[in-house]
Protein backbone atom coordinates (compact mmCIF):
# COMPACT_ATOMS: atom_id res chain seq x y z
CA UNK A 1 0.00 0.00 0.00
CA UNK A 2 1.29 3.49 -0.77
CA UNK A 3 0.19 6.79 0.68
CA UNK A 4 0.54 10.16 -1.06
CA UNK A 5 2.11 12.91 1.01
CA UNK A 6 2.00 16.67 0.82
CA UNK A 7 5.51 16.60 -0.58
CA UNK A 8 4.25 14.69 -3.61
CA UNK A 9 6.37 11.66 -2.65
CA UNK A 10 4.89 8.32 -1.78
CA UNK A 11 5.55 6.40 1.37
CA UNK A 12 5.11 2.67 1.64
CA UNK A 13 2.58 1.92 4.36
CA UNK A 14 1.42 -1.15 6.25
CA UNK A 15 -2.18 -1.74 7.21
CA UNK A 16 -3.86 1.21 8.97
CA UNK A 17 -4.30 0.88 12.71
CA UNK A 18 -7.29 -1.33 13.43
CA UNK A 19 -9.27 -1.87 16.61
CA UNK A 20 -9.25 -5.05 18.66
CA UNK A 21 -12.24 -7.36 18.18
CA UNK A 22 -15.30 -5.79 19.79
CA UNK A 23 -13.52 -2.49 20.52
CA UNK A 24 -15.31 -0.58 17.75
CA UNK A 25 -18.71 -1.95 18.78
CA UNK A 26 -18.05 -0.96 22.41
CA UNK A 27 -17.14 2.60 21.33
CA UNK A 28 -20.32 2.96 19.26
CA UNK A 29 -22.39 1.51 22.10
CA UNK A 30 -21.00 4.08 24.57
CA UNK A 31 -21.71 6.86 22.08
CA UNK A 32 -25.28 5.54 21.74
CA UNK A 33 -25.72 5.64 25.51
CA UNK A 34 -24.42 9.22 25.62
CA UNK A 35 -26.75 10.25 22.79
CA UNK A 36 -29.75 8.68 24.51
CA UNK A 37 -28.89 10.54 27.69
CA UNK A 38 -28.71 13.88 25.83
CA UNK A 39 -32.33 13.30 24.79
CA UNK A 40 -33.55 12.37 28.30
CA UNK A 41 -35.74 14.69 30.35
CA UNK A 42 -33.66 17.76 31.36
CA UNK A 43 -32.31 18.17 34.87
CA UNK A 44 -34.79 19.79 37.28
CA UNK A 45 -32.44 22.77 37.74
CA UNK A 46 -32.14 23.36 33.98
CA UNK A 47 -33.69 26.46 32.48
CA UNK A 48 -33.17 28.61 35.57
CA UNK A 49 -29.44 29.22 35.42
CA UNK A 50 -28.96 31.79 32.66
CA UNK A 51 -27.09 34.17 34.98
CA UNK A 52 -24.21 31.66 34.97
CA UNK A 53 -23.49 32.14 31.27
CA UNK A 54 -23.53 35.91 30.82
CA UNK A 55 -19.89 36.79 30.09
CA UNK A 56 -20.51 40.50 29.65
CA UNK A 57 -19.86 42.65 32.69
CA UNK A 58 -18.58 39.77 34.81
CA UNK A 59 -15.16 40.24 36.41
CA UNK A 60 -12.98 37.30 37.37
CA UNK A 61 -11.71 36.77 40.94
CA UNK A 62 -8.14 38.21 41.14
CA UNK A 63 -6.42 34.80 41.48
CA UNK A 64 -8.23 33.40 38.45
CA UNK A 65 -7.61 36.59 36.44
CA UNK A 66 -3.86 36.22 37.15
CA UNK A 67 -3.97 32.55 36.06
CA UNK A 68 -5.81 33.54 32.86
CA UNK A 69 -3.08 36.10 32.08
CA UNK A 70 -0.41 33.49 32.77
CA UNK A 71 -1.95 30.88 30.46
CA UNK A 72 -2.60 33.43 27.72
CA UNK A 73 0.95 34.81 27.84
CA UNK A 74 2.73 31.45 28.16
CA UNK A 75 0.75 29.65 25.49
CA UNK A 76 0.16 32.44 23.00
CA UNK A 77 3.77 33.56 22.71
CA UNK A 78 4.87 33.78 19.11
CA UNK A 79 1.26 33.94 17.81
CA UNK A 80 1.42 30.24 16.86
CA UNK A 81 -1.77 29.37 18.68
CA UNK A 82 -4.00 32.08 17.16
CA UNK A 83 -2.78 31.17 13.67
CA UNK A 84 -3.36 27.46 14.20
CA UNK A 85 -6.79 28.16 15.70
CA UNK A 86 -7.87 29.72 12.44
CA UNK A 87 -9.44 26.91 10.35
CA UNK A 88 -8.51 28.90 7.21
CA UNK A 89 -4.76 28.55 7.91
CA UNK A 90 -3.39 26.50 5.01
CA UNK A 91 -1.50 23.24 5.24
CA UNK A 92 1.64 24.96 3.95
CA UNK A 93 1.44 27.60 6.68
CA UNK A 94 0.98 24.90 9.33
CA UNK A 95 4.02 23.03 8.01
CA UNK A 96 6.08 26.22 8.25
CA UNK A 97 4.86 26.88 11.79
CA UNK A 98 5.64 23.33 12.93
CA UNK A 99 9.02 23.25 11.18
CA UNK A 100 10.05 26.43 12.97
CA UNK A 101 9.53 24.83 16.38
CA UNK A 102 12.03 21.99 17.10
CA UNK A 103 9.95 20.43 19.88
CA UNK A 104 6.82 20.37 17.76
CA UNK A 105 8.64 19.17 14.68
CA UNK A 106 10.19 16.33 16.71
CA UNK A 107 6.84 15.33 18.13
CA UNK A 108 5.07 15.29 14.77
CA UNK A 109 7.89 13.21 13.26
CA UNK A 110 7.81 10.82 16.23
CA UNK A 111 4.08 10.27 15.79
CA UNK A 112 4.21 9.90 12.01
CA UNK A 113 6.86 7.20 12.49
CA UNK A 114 5.02 5.45 15.34
CA UNK A 115 3.10 2.16 14.85
CA UNK A 116 -0.12 4.24 14.85
CA UNK A 117 0.40 4.89 11.17
CA UNK A 118 2.05 1.62 10.19
CA UNK A 119 4.46 3.19 7.70
CA UNK A 120 7.32 1.02 6.47
CA UNK A 121 9.61 3.83 5.34
CA UNK A 122 10.97 6.26 7.90
CA UNK A 123 9.77 9.85 7.49
CA UNK A 124 12.32 12.58 8.07
CA UNK A 125 10.60 15.59 6.48
CA UNK A 126 8.18 17.69 8.49
CA UNK A 127 5.97 18.28 5.45
CA UNK A 128 5.51 14.54 4.95
CA UNK A 129 4.96 13.98 8.66
CA UNK A 130 2.21 16.65 8.81
CA UNK A 131 0.51 15.10 5.77
CA UNK A 132 0.59 11.64 7.36
CA UNK A 133 -0.57 12.71 10.83
CA UNK A 134 -3.28 15.00 9.43
CA UNK A 135 -3.96 18.67 9.93
CA UNK A 136 -6.54 18.21 12.70
CA UNK A 137 -4.27 15.94 14.71
CA UNK A 138 -1.34 18.33 14.27
CA UNK A 139 -3.52 21.14 15.63
CA UNK A 140 -4.34 18.99 18.68
CA UNK A 141 -0.63 18.34 19.26
CA UNK A 142 0.27 21.99 18.94
CA UNK A 143 -2.42 23.06 21.38
CA UNK A 144 -1.28 20.50 23.92
CA UNK A 145 2.36 21.49 23.44
CA UNK A 146 1.66 25.21 23.84
CA UNK A 147 -0.70 24.82 26.76
CA UNK A 148 1.81 22.57 28.53
CA UNK A 149 4.00 25.67 28.80
CA UNK A 150 1.43 27.41 30.96
CA UNK A 151 2.58 27.09 34.55
CA UNK A 152 -0.30 27.98 36.83
CA UNK A 153 0.59 27.62 40.54
CA UNK A 154 -1.77 25.03 42.04
CA UNK A 155 -3.21 24.25 38.59
CA UNK A 156 -3.77 20.78 37.20
CA UNK A 157 -0.96 18.27 37.56
CA UNK A 158 0.81 16.76 34.53
CA UNK A 159 -1.30 13.54 34.65
CA UNK A 160 -4.47 15.65 34.98
CA UNK A 161 -3.39 17.74 31.98
CA UNK A 162 -2.72 14.56 29.98
CA UNK A 163 -6.27 13.39 30.72
CA UNK A 164 -7.56 16.83 29.69
CA UNK A 165 -5.73 16.76 26.33
CA UNK A 166 -7.11 13.28 25.59
CA UNK A 167 -10.64 14.41 26.49
CA UNK A 168 -10.38 17.59 24.42
CA UNK A 169 -8.95 15.67 21.43
CA UNK A 170 -11.90 13.24 21.55
CA UNK A 171 -14.38 16.10 21.92
CA UNK A 172 -12.81 17.79 18.89
CA UNK A 173 -13.10 14.65 16.74
CA UNK A 174 -16.74 14.18 17.80
CA UNK A 175 -17.62 17.86 17.24
CA UNK A 176 -16.23 17.66 13.70
CA UNK A 177 -18.14 14.43 13.04
CA UNK A 178 -21.51 15.71 14.23
CA UNK A 179 -21.11 19.22 12.67
CA UNK A 180 -23.13 18.28 9.52
CA UNK A 181 -26.18 17.79 11.79
CA UNK A 182 -26.22 21.57 12.41
CA UNK A 183 -27.19 23.83 9.51
CA UNK A 184 -24.34 26.06 8.36
CA UNK A 185 -21.82 24.83 10.94
CA UNK A 186 -18.21 24.62 9.68
CA UNK A 187 -16.70 21.27 10.69
CA UNK A 188 -13.19 22.79 11.03
CA UNK A 189 -14.44 25.47 13.41
CA UNK A 190 -16.34 22.81 15.41
CA UNK A 191 -13.12 20.78 15.70
CA UNK A 192 -11.11 23.76 16.97
CA UNK A 193 -13.81 24.75 19.46
CA UNK A 194 -13.91 21.16 20.74
CA UNK A 195 -10.15 21.19 21.14
CA UNK A 196 -10.30 24.32 23.29
CA UNK A 197 -13.58 23.84 25.15
CA UNK A 198 -12.17 23.02 28.63
CA UNK A 199 -9.12 25.31 28.45
CA UNK A 200 -10.51 27.32 31.38
CA UNK A 201 -9.81 24.35 33.67
CA UNK A 202 -6.10 25.20 33.42
CA UNK A 203 -6.77 28.32 35.46
CA UNK A 204 -8.70 26.64 38.29
CA UNK A 205 -6.99 25.05 41.29
CA UNK A 206 -6.14 21.38 40.94
CA UNK A 207 -8.90 20.47 43.37
CA UNK A 208 -11.36 21.40 40.64
CA UNK A 209 -9.92 19.04 38.06
CA UNK A 210 -12.18 16.08 37.92
CA UNK A 211 -13.45 13.96 35.07
CA UNK A 212 -16.92 14.10 36.62
CA UNK A 213 -19.58 16.01 34.70
CA UNK A 214 -19.67 19.63 35.62
CA UNK A 215 -22.38 21.58 37.48
CA UNK A 216 -22.11 25.39 37.49
CA UNK A 217 -23.18 26.02 41.09
CA UNK A 218 -20.32 23.88 42.46
CA UNK A 219 -17.56 25.66 40.51
CA UNK A 220 -19.04 29.08 41.12
CA UNK A 221 -19.23 28.41 44.85
CA UNK A 222 -15.65 27.12 44.97
CA UNK A 223 -13.89 29.58 42.64
CA UNK A 224 -16.29 32.44 41.93
CA UNK A 225 -16.24 31.49 38.24
CA UNK A 226 -16.88 28.41 36.14
CA UNK A 227 -14.43 26.98 33.62
CA UNK A 228 -16.51 28.13 30.63
CA UNK A 229 -16.17 31.76 31.67
CA UNK A 230 -12.51 31.31 32.59
CA UNK A 231 -11.97 29.69 29.17
CA UNK A 232 -13.71 32.61 27.49
CA UNK A 233 -11.16 34.93 29.13
CA UNK A 234 -8.24 32.68 28.10
CA UNK A 235 -9.44 32.66 24.48
CA UNK A 236 -9.67 36.47 24.64
CA UNK A 237 -5.99 36.48 25.64
CA UNK A 238 -5.19 34.26 22.64
CA UNK A 239 -6.89 36.76 20.37
CA UNK A 240 -9.10 34.03 18.88
CA UNK A 241 -12.17 34.67 16.71
CA UNK A 242 -15.17 35.65 18.85
CA UNK A 243 -17.26 32.61 17.89
CA UNK A 244 -14.63 30.24 19.35
CA UNK A 245 -14.48 32.16 22.66
CA UNK A 246 -18.27 32.21 22.79
CA UNK A 247 -18.50 28.44 22.21
CA UNK A 248 -15.99 27.83 25.02
CA UNK A 249 -18.04 30.08 27.32
CA UNK A 250 -21.35 28.45 26.44
CA UNK A 251 -20.46 24.78 25.97
CA UNK A 252 -22.44 23.71 29.05
CA UNK A 253 -25.28 26.19 28.54
CA UNK A 254 -27.54 23.84 26.51
CA UNK A 255 -28.00 21.68 29.62
CA UNK A 256 -28.80 24.65 31.87
CA UNK A 257 -30.32 27.57 29.99
CA UNK A 258 -33.28 27.69 27.63
CA UNK A 259 -32.25 29.01 24.24
CA UNK A 260 -34.38 32.18 24.50
CA UNK A 261 -32.63 33.17 27.75
CA UNK A 262 -29.15 33.02 26.21
CA UNK A 263 -27.56 36.26 25.08
CA UNK A 264 -26.16 34.84 21.85
CA UNK A 265 -27.04 34.49 18.15
CA UNK A 266 -28.14 31.21 16.59
CA UNK A 267 -24.82 30.60 14.80
CA UNK A 268 -22.91 30.86 18.10
CA UNK A 269 -25.50 28.70 19.84
CA UNK A 270 -25.21 25.99 17.15
CA UNK A 271 -21.44 25.86 17.64
CA UNK A 272 -21.75 25.75 21.46
CA UNK A 273 -24.42 23.05 21.16
CA UNK A 274 -22.27 20.88 18.89
CA UNK A 275 -19.31 21.21 21.29
CA UNK A 276 -21.48 20.60 24.36
CA UNK A 277 -22.96 17.46 22.81
CA UNK A 278 -19.51 16.25 21.72
CA UNK A 279 -18.29 16.83 25.28
CA UNK A 280 -21.10 14.68 26.71
CA UNK A 281 -20.42 11.95 24.14
CA UNK A 282 -16.69 12.02 24.99
CA UNK A 283 -17.51 11.65 28.68
CA UNK A 284 -19.78 8.71 27.88
CA UNK A 285 -16.94 7.18 25.88
CA UNK A 286 -14.69 7.51 28.91
CA UNK A 287 -17.11 5.34 30.88
CA UNK A 288 -18.93 8.06 32.76
CA UNK A 289 -22.15 6.80 34.37
CA UNK A 290 -24.93 7.89 31.95
CA UNK A 291 -27.02 9.00 34.94
CA UNK A 292 -24.41 11.67 35.67
CA UNK A 293 -24.41 13.10 32.15
CA UNK A 294 -26.68 16.09 31.61
CA UNK A 295 -29.50 16.06 29.02
CA UNK A 296 -30.21 18.99 26.72
CA UNK A 297 -32.93 21.52 27.43
CA UNK A 298 -35.84 20.91 25.06
CA UNK A 299 -35.50 24.25 23.28
CA UNK A 300 -32.23 23.26 21.52
CA UNK A 301 -33.57 20.20 19.78
CA UNK A 302 -34.97 22.04 16.77
CA UNK A 303 -31.37 22.97 15.82
CA UNK A 304 -30.36 19.33 15.36
CA UNK A 305 -30.88 17.20 12.26
CA UNK A 306 -31.41 13.93 14.10
CA UNK A 307 -31.03 11.44 11.21
CA UNK A 308 -27.68 12.99 10.24
CA UNK A 309 -26.56 12.95 13.87
CA UNK A 310 -27.50 9.29 14.33
CA UNK A 311 -25.75 8.32 11.11
CA UNK A 312 -22.55 10.18 12.08
CA UNK A 313 -22.39 8.39 15.43
CA UNK A 314 -22.99 4.91 13.97
CA UNK A 315 -20.02 4.98 11.58
CA UNK A 316 -17.40 2.34 12.52
CA UNK A 317 -14.68 4.62 11.07
CA UNK A 318 -15.43 7.06 13.90
CA UNK A 319 -14.28 4.49 16.46
CA UNK A 320 -10.93 4.19 14.67
CA UNK A 321 -10.60 7.97 14.45
CA UNK A 322 -11.27 8.39 18.18
CA UNK A 323 -8.86 5.63 19.10
CA UNK A 324 -6.14 7.21 16.98
CA UNK A 325 -6.71 10.70 18.45
CA UNK A 326 -6.35 9.32 21.98
CA UNK A 327 -3.28 7.24 21.16
CA UNK A 328 -1.69 10.26 19.54
CA UNK A 329 -1.90 12.27 22.73
CA UNK A 330 -0.33 9.35 24.60
CA UNK A 331 2.54 9.00 22.11
CA UNK A 332 3.25 12.74 22.12
CA UNK A 333 3.68 12.69 25.91
CA UNK A 334 5.77 9.51 26.12
FE1 LIG B 1 -16.54 21.69 30.22
FE1 LIG C 1 -15.20 18.71 28.56
Defining key terms:
single chain, 334 residues, mainly alpha, Hypothetical protein af1432, 2 strands, 2% strand, disordered N terminus, binds fe (ii) ion
Summarize the structure in words:
This protein is mainly alpha-helical. The chain has a domain at 31-77 and 157-333: Orthogonal Bundle (Hypothetical protein af1432). It has helices spanning 23-38, 62-76, 80-85, 91-99, 102-112, 126-133, 135-148, 158-178, 187-196, 216-223, 227-238, 242-250, 266-285, 306-313, 316-333; strands spanning 2-4, 10-12. The protein has a two-stranded antiparallel ribbon with strand order 1-2. Strand 1 (2-4) and strand 2 (10-12) form a beta hairpin. The longest helix is centred in the middle third of the chain and has 21 residues, at 158-178. The protein is globular and about 55 Å long. It starts with a strand and ends with a helix. One fe (ii) ion is lined by residues 197-198, 214, 227, 251-252, 279.
Give the CATH topology of one domain. Hypothetical protein af1432
Q: What is the overall number of helices?
A: 15
Strands ordered across the widest β-sheet: 1-2
- Rg measurement, Å: 19 Å
The helix content, as a percent range, equals: 55-70%
Q: Which class do the helix and strand fractions yield?
A: mainly alpha
Dominant shape: globular
Hetero groups: fe (ii) ion
Tell me the β content. Answer: under 5%
Quickly give the CATH architecture of one domain.
Orthogonal Bundle
What gap, in angstroms, lies between the N and C termini? 28 Å
Main sheet specs: 2 strands, antiparallel
What's the CATH C level of one domain?
Mainly Alpha
Q: Average pLDDT value?
A: 81
Assembly annotation: single chain
User: What order do the SSEs take from the amino end to the carboxyl end, as H and E?
Assistant: EEHHHHHHHHHHHHHHH
* Strand segment tally: 2
Low-confidence sequence ranges: 1-16
